[in-house]
Structure prediction request, 89 residues.
Amino acid sequence: MTFANDAQGKIEDAETQIARLREQVETLMKDHVTPAVADFAGRAESAVHSASGIVRDQAQVVSGHVKEQPLIAIMIAAAIGWTIGRVMR
Prediction:
């Protein structure tokens, strides 16, 4: 019976340690990882917002140039299309 009691005691100790480790991991996740992920998400959202603003502004600038000089814009587009066509062959 001593062997069975020792085995049962070791199993209970292991279960207790596993439960304690689980609690520690949950605490670390809550205290450290979750705030870091939230901070990163906030920074990424800010960067995307800034980039979309820059792209929008540049699109307006290009649109203005096309409206001011449509013939040059057509020639540039044709040259780019021809170059891409040559490269794709």
Summary: The longest helix spans residues 2-68.
